[in-house]
Structures are given as structure tokens and as C-alpha cells.
Amino acid sequence: MTPEELKSKIEAALEEIRPFLQSDGGDITLVGIEDGTRVKVRLEGACVGCTVNQMTLKSGVEMTIKKHAPQIEQVINIS
Question: φ and ψ at 71, to 5 degrees?
């Protein structure tokens, strides 16, 4: 998979989860992809101060990204 295809798949995953985040006043932005295995994102809005944002990141965002791009090993929130 080319870097462009990988980015496209990750963006598609974020579009899938974005409505859930926005319904709670939050959002998410792709910051970058490192070594084709690590994704950096920025949780925004209400997600920044949310006490369950790490759970959202792991069980929601990371799971959805891995469904679209199985080679991703880690999703990191950059605040």
C-alpha cells in the first residue's frame, strides 16, 4: 500500500468515527503517519478535557483505524 493509499484509508476511518465525536462536542484531526505503522491524531473540542478520551482513543479510534488499515500498530493523541 502506498503512503497515499494508507492516508486515504486512515482518513476514511476518521470520517467513520467523527460523527460520534462531534455528537459529544468533539472532533479529531490526522496529524501524521510515522513509518507506516503509527498514526498521530489530535483530539479536539470536548474531547480534550474528557476523562474517557484515552478509552475513546484506544477502543474507538484505534480499533476503527486498524479495521481500515491493519498494518497500523499504534494511535497516539498529540495534544
Answer: -75, -10
